[in-house]
Design brief:
- The chain is mostly beta strands.
- Among the domains are: about 5-105, Immunoglobulin-like (Sandwich); about 270-345 and about 905-940, no CATH class.
- Strand 20 and strand 21 (about 330-335) form a beta hairpin.
Amino acid sequence: MGNLSIFKIVLSTYQIMKLTLTCLASLLLVFSVSAQTTLRGIVTDGSNNGIAGATIKIDESTNSTVSDANGNFSIELTDGYETLIISAEGFQVRKIYLTGQNSITVKMNSLSAGNQINMGIGSQSKDELTSSVSSIDAADVSPAPLINLEQANQGVTAGLFVQNSSGKLGQGTTVRIRGGSSLSASNQPLYVIDGVPLTSGNQSNINPSNIASIEILKDAAATAIYGTRAANGVIIITTKSGNAGEMQINLDYQLGISQTPKFLDIQSGDEHRLQTFESILRGFMIGVEPFTISPEIRIDGTDYTITKEFLDNFYNAGLTDVTIVDDPSNQTFTFNMPSFYSQLDGNTDWQKEVFRNAPSHRANIDVQGGTQQLGYFASVGYTTQEGILIGNKFDRLNGSLSLNSKITDKLSANLNFNYIFTEDNRLNEDQDLGAPLQAIVLPPSDSYDPANNYRLNVRSLEYNPLTEINFADNVATNNSMIGSLGFNYKFSEKVSIDVNGGIDRSDIRAERRQGPETLDGAPNGRSSISEQMVENYVTNGWLTYTPEVSGNNKLSLILGGSYQKSTTSFDFRQANVNSISTLESLTDSDPSLFNEPIQGDANVFLSSYARVSYSIGNLYDIQVTGRMDGSSKFSEDNRFGYFPAVSAGWNIHNMTGFDSPTWSQLKLRASYGLVGNAPTDDFLYRRNYIRTRYNDEDAVEFANLSNENLKWETTSQLNVGIDFGLTAKNITGSVDYYIKTTTDLLFPVPVSQTSGLSTIFDNIGSMENKGFEINISSINVNNTDFSWTTDFNISFNDNVITDLNGEQAIVGVNAFLENRPAGVFYMRKYAGVDPDTGEALYDDGDGGTTDNWEEAPRQEVGNPNPDFFGGLTNSITYKNWEFSTMFQFVGGVDLYFATGEYLANSGILNLGQLTRESNRWYEPGDEAPYPVLNPFQDEPNASTRWLEDGSYVRLKNITLTYNFPEAALSNMGLRNFSIYVGATNLFTITDYIGYDPDVSYFDPLDGIIGQNISRGIDNFTAPQPRIFMSGIKIGF
C-alpha cells in the first residue's frame, strides 16, 4: 500500500472526526446555559420508560431528590457544573458531569443485563471482568437494513474483522477475531446461540430482530472455557426472551431498493471495434520466430507505420476491400471492410444487461410478556430480497419461541427454539464462464438476434449470459433449527446446578437444471440434485458454588462437563436430462446417471472444565480457568488436550485515596492462557477411504494417508488491557494489547506419490498475531430534548508465519511462506513497458528487467491482511427524532484485481477491455503504462499490474427515525409508533479500480486451505449493493 493511500485513509478519518468535534463544540455552545439554579430531567430504562423512585444526588453534597411516578425530577444546582449520582433499584449507578445544561435525560442500565456479561458458561459482572470481551446490544444490530448477522457486526467493535466474499445473496463472509490462527483448519470463530455451539453455519440466518445481545470473547481467559473450539475466538448470541408484564406486540416492516454502487469503465462498441481492427492488423505484423511485432505494415502497396492516428483515420476512411501483405511471410490477404463492420455489430453494455435495481421486503412480528412464573417471547419474520444480479433471489422465514418458567422456588427452566427456512436462487460461481459478471469480458455485440431471440453466438463464443440465467434453475433450500432446553436448580443461595441440551440441525437440498440452450447444458440439458445434512447434539451441565468469604470479598467456583456429537452426510446425483423429475426417476443402474455415493462423517467431543473467580474488596479480581477436551478426530494417544488460563484485574479507581473527580473508572487487566483447534476433516490419524465410481462400477479410493502422531493445534495468548472512564467528559473506553501464538500447525506435507497420494497432514509450523485495539464511547450532549453519543473503534494486527519447517504452499497468486503473513501475494513484479518494442517488462530479481514472463521470478509483493480497520458511529436524538451514521474503514490492505487481468486478455478472441487499456503502446518511443495489443496472447499473465490498494472508508449505515409522541398514540391504543428511512453502503472513498474493495474471493474447490490462502482476490465478484430503505415499527 502506497504512502499516499495511507495518507488518504488517515485524512478521511481525521476529517470525519474533525467534523464530529466541530459539531460537538458548536452544539455545546448552543445548549450550554451557565449559572442555572434548577435542573429538570427524566430517568428512564432501556425502553425509554420512566423509572419511579430513582435517587438523584449531587456529589459531595447533601442535596438530593427522588424521581416521580413517571421518572421526572428537578433539583437545585449551585453553578450548573456539578456531578450527579443517579441510583435506582435493579439498575447500575450512573455518574454524570453537568456542563451547564438545564435539562437532562438519564438512561439507566439494568443490573441483570447491562452490567452482566454472558460468558457462555455463567455470567460475570463488568466490574469484575478480567478478560477481553466486547458487547454488542440489540440497538447496535437492528438499524442495519436487510443484512445478515455477520454484516451487521462489520466495523462495530474492535478486534472483529468482517469481509464479504461477494455481493450475491446467500454468500458467506470471512470473520476473523485478532487474525487467523490456522493454515489448514477453520479460522472462523465459534458461534454459540442460546448455549448451543454451532457447526452448521446457521448464525448467518438468525433473524437480527430477535437478537438481545452479542458477546465477543477475544482473549484466552475469556475463551478457555470452550477449549479446543476457541482458538479463533467465540461469539455468544443471546436471543430475546419474555419477562413478567403485560403482553406486548411489536410489528416491523421494511421496504428496500438495492442498486449497483458502481459500474466499471468498459469499452463502448466503437472503441471495441477499433481495438479489433488494430488486433487484426497487428496479427499480420507478428513474425513466427521470434514472436516480435514490426511497427510497419503494407496495405494496398503502401507502407504504413502503425500509430494511434493511423488507426483512427484508416478505420474511419470508408474503404471496401484492402490488400494486406503479411511481413515476414510476404503473403497477401484481402480484407473486406464492410464484412468486418457487419461482424462487429452492437453496442451492448453487458453490465446493464446483468445488473438491476432490486426490491426487498422484511416483515417481523413478535409477542412477549408473562407472569412471575412464566415469561414468553415468540416471533415470526419473513424476508424476501432480489439481488442486484438478475436471477439472484433470497427468501427467509424465521420462527422463534422462548419460554422462561419458574417451576418452584428452587427450580426454573428455559426453552429456546429457532426455526429457519431459506430458499436461495443461486447463480454460477464467480469464476465460471456462465457467471453473470463474466459477461463483461464479452464483446459489445447485440444480446438478441434479428428475430428477438437470445443470441447464442457472441463473437465465436457459444455463450450468452442471458441464456445462462433464463434457461437455467439453481435453487437451494435449507430447513434448519437451533434449539435448547435448560434447567437450573438452586440447592441454596450458595449452590446451584445448570443442565441443558441443544440441537443444531440443517438439511440443505440444491436442485440445478441447465437447459440445452446453456453452455454446460448443451445439447440435451443437465440436471443435478445434492443433499446435505448437518446435525449437532450437545449436552452441558455445571455446578456453581458461591460461598461466603470474609470482608467485602467474593468467591465463585464452576465445575462442569459437556458432550457433543456432530454428524454430516452428503449425496449427489447428476444426469444429462432437462428436468429434475426425470433425474429423480432414473435408477442407479441407468448408464446416463452419475451418482456419487453417499458420504458421511461423525465426530465426538467430550469435555470437562472448571473456573474459579475471586474478588478482593472491589480492588482485585483473579480468575483461573481450565478445560480438558477429548476428540474422536485424534488417535488415543493424542485424543485429549488441556487448556488452562489465568487472568487478573486491578480496579485502581476503587483504591483508598484515589478519589479523583476525573476518573469514573480506571482498571488494569492481564491474562494468559491456551486454547486449541482441531482439523476440519475427521480421523486424519488413520487411513480413510471414500466410495467412488470406476468404469461405471462401485469402487473405493484413498482419502488420506494416516498419521497417528497428529495432535491439537495450540494457541497461547497474552493480553494486557486497560478500561477507563472520564467523568467530566462522559467518555469510556478500553485499550488492549495482545500476542497470540499458534504452534503445532497442521499442514499437508509432500510425500512420494508412490504412496498413492501426494501429501500427508502433520504438525509442523507456528504462526503469530500481535496487535492492539481501542474502543472509545462518549456522551457528547445529554439534555432532555437533545442527546448525542459517539462510538469509535480501531484495531491493528500483524500476522506472520514464524515456522513452516521449510515448506511452502502456493495457490494462484497467494502463498504460505515462512516469516511472511499468511496468504501473502506472491507473483511477478510488473516493471512497465519497453518503449522500443511495446512488450511488458517484469522485474528479473537482479535489479534488471525481462520481457519473458516465465523467466521472471515470483516475489512477495503485497499483503491481503489489513494493517488496521474500525468504525465510527454517531447517534443523535432531538425530541422525537433519531439520527445515526456509521462509518467503516479498512487500511493497509492489498487486493488482486483478477477481473482486470482477464479483461486485459488481447488474444485472438479479442474480448472486451477496460477503457484505460487504450492508453497502451502504439509505436517506438511511446512511454505508455500498458503494453502493445498482442492478438496471439491468449493467456493472461498474473503480475503486480493488477495488484491494487484496497483501503477504503465507507458510510456503512445512515438512518433517520421519527417516534410519534405518546400523547398522539394514547387514543389509538398504541404503545409506540415510529417511521424510519435509511441507506446502507451509501458511498465509499477508495482508490480501488474494481467494483468493491470489500471482497475476498476463493474457489470452493480449493477447500478450507484454499479459503485460508486465497485472500484478497476479486475474480468477477459482485459488489455489496447500495440499499435505500424505509420502514415502520408499531408497538401495542
